[in-house]
Amino acid sequence: QKEVEQNSGPLSVPEGAIASLNCTYSDRGSQSFFWYRQYSGKSPELIMSIYSNGDKEDGRFTAQLNKASQYVSLLIRDSQPSDSATYLCAVSIIQGAQKLVFGQGTRLTINP
Amino acid sequence: DVKVTQSSRYLVKRTGEKVFLECVQDMDHENMFWYRQDPGLGLRLIYFSYDVKMKEKGDIPEGYSVSREKKERFSLILESASTNQTSMYLCAVGRGNQPQHFGDGTRLSIL
Fold it and tell me: Of A4, A52, B57, B79, which has the fewest beta carbons less than 10 angstroms from its beta carbon?
């Protein structure tokens, strides 16, 4: 069973601080890693993709990947109330097509 | 941007009915997926397709079937709807090692 583990939260962070979201995965063969944001009642929206070890920055978001430790994280700098959402970590496996295994999600609340 | 259109945002059906959920994409991506999402259970893959007329079972295919007659359209069929199939259904499309993009979802209630 391929697994992706996230802390379900809720994670509460003051406005303007850094929010740190973590994810571990079990399949060492995984090559692609994604972070999705999901607002209540809405569908998941892609915010970051990362394919190689190290950091990838996009605006206030930084994704970090460590394949040796099977760990991927998402940092949100200068957190805003609009960042309050559930964040889903997704890890690829190849079975015919590239499938994604999703974590349960971390609920993040940014407090003004 | 990939546009993924699901036929209904909200749907109410009765137990025993045959239910069709439609998903259409505009980007010629080969892979299409159907998930359901339930509180506490996360996103679970029902079926996926990597080409026209090709389909593969996901983690929870029981009670469902799919159809992909054209590349842009992937249909999920509940053969005989039951109350435990009340859920949010999400269609996603993808290509190669690129991320999947989701439709807006269909919130289905079976009474």
Answer: A52
